[in-house]
Amino acid sequence: MSNTTSSLAQPAASAQGGAADIRFYLFPVLAVCIWSGNTIITKAASGAIEPAAIAFYRWVLAVLVMTPFLGREAWRQRAVIAANWPRLMLLGALGMAMYQGLAYEAAHTTSAVNMGVTVALMPLMSACLSSLFAGERLTTTRIACGVLSLLGLVVISARGDLGKLLDGGLHIGDALMLIAVTSNALYGVLLKRWALPLSTWAQLYVQAAFGSLILLPFWLAAPASPLTAQNLPMVMYAGLLASIGAPFLWMNAIKHLGAPRSALFANLIPLLVALAAWALLGEQLHAYHALGGALVLTGVVWGQRSGRK
Questions:
Q1: In the structure, what pLDDT confidence band is assigned to residue 14 with cuts at 50, 70 and 90?
Q2: What confidence score (pLDDT) does residue 115 get?
Q3: What is the mean pLDDT of residues 63-69?
Q4: pTM, rounded to two decimals
Q5: Do 2 and 70 meet the contact criterion of CB atoms below 8 Å apart?
Q6: Which value, in Å, is the radius of gyration of the alpha carbons in the chain?
Q7: Of 49, 3, 27, which is closest to residue 246 (Cα–Cα)?
Q8: How far apart are CA 279 and CA 276, in angstroms?
Q9: pLDDT reported for residue 78
């Protein structure tokens, strides 16, 4: 882990194209792969542990694991952290506490179909918020790419029958997911805009610490949900890969590609989850998976090419 201070605001000069551009694309791709696995974990965790408990445990675990490596750097940078603590706390609230915690809670009161469609709104939200707060131009092409990927996810989530989206009605979980997705989109925009003078690892460490503090009262107020042999592997995956690896990759994706272009890759999550269910759980793939996946990939690739130009 590097102690070198790096700004999240300035994209690397080599990100203009070529091999370096391809290397930067690995950041969001690997992040969404980890989050896709975490989606399966989230579904399994809904009956094994309280939402507030797994949300709190995962970030506490992440902080404990990172402390031996980043505690000294955070102490050396304490003056910078003290000067920027309101921004770091807000980032921790948006990206760690709200997005992750609300997603766990929403899984108890809404369908996976509705959750998938709500997550598909993230690229459009990110583009709109970047236009409002970061001064990025909201182009017709960017909107069209987001809509195309959204349509593909609707096809996948509805299993080829758009009427399925309305069968279950609306639930409180739908509102929670909308808030969660909006908070994560705003997190990406603010992360890019504020250019905090801390390394990516240091920012992640401090944000995770703030996220843990924000989740603490919710964990205390929730029904007791201790760690068991059944839920411990879920907490380990969420606390290590999904809370340390994926956010670090995502922060680097935003640093080099920007929030709107990075957000497009979130559309791959339902497609990757479907492929994982086919490969690991033996679930069948259907024609609507191919159609929806083609639309999603077209929107993502089109968005990346237009963004690079």
A1: very low
A2: 66
A3: 95
A4: 0.74
A5: no
A6: 19
A7: 27
A8: 5
A9: 94
Q: Please enumerate in sequence order all residues whose Cβ is within 8 A of that of 195, keeping only pairs 6 or more positions apart, or say none.
A: 7, 8, 9, 10
Q: In Å, what is the CA distance from 117 to each residue of 24, 212, 267, 294? A: 27, 28, 10, 16
* H helix runs in 77-139, sequence order: 78-83, 85-91, 99-106, 112-119, 122-133
Task: Report residue 231: phi and psi, to 5°.
Answer: -95, -10
And the tokens for 286?
């259907």
The b/e string for 7-42 (b: 16+ C-beta within 10 A; e otherwise) is ebeebeeebeeeeebeebbebbebbbbbbbbbbbbb
pLDDT of 96-131, one tens digit each? 899 888 888 887 776 665 666 677 677 777 777 877
pLDDT in tens, 156-198: 666 656 565 555 555 677 788 889 888 988 998 898 888 789 9
**Residue 47: pLDDT over 60:** yes
Structure-token match 């404990």, residue found: 64
Nearest CA among 57, 46, 19 for reference residue 226: 57
Contacts 24+ apart (CB under 8 A), 179-183: 179/98, 179/102, 180/98, 180/99, 180/102, 180/103, 180/106, 181/99, 181/118, 181/119, 181/121, 181/122, 181/125, 182/125, 183/93, 183/94, 183/95, 183/98, 183/99, 183/102
The CA-atom distances, in angstroms, between 281 and each of 234, 249, 277 are 17, 27, 5
Enter the DSSP assignment of 285. P
How far apart CA 98 and CA 181 sit, in angstroms, is 9
Give the pair of three-digit tokens for residue 88: 């770091």
Number of neighbouring beta carbons within 10 Å of residue 175: 15
Instruction: Name the residue with tokens 């606390």.
Output: 239
pLDDT band at 221 (very low <50, low <70, confident <90, very high): very high
Both tokens assigned to 87: 């921004």
Nearest CA to 5 out of 69, 71, 84, 74 is that of 74
What pLDDT is recorded for position 65? 95
pLDDT, residue 103, reads: 81
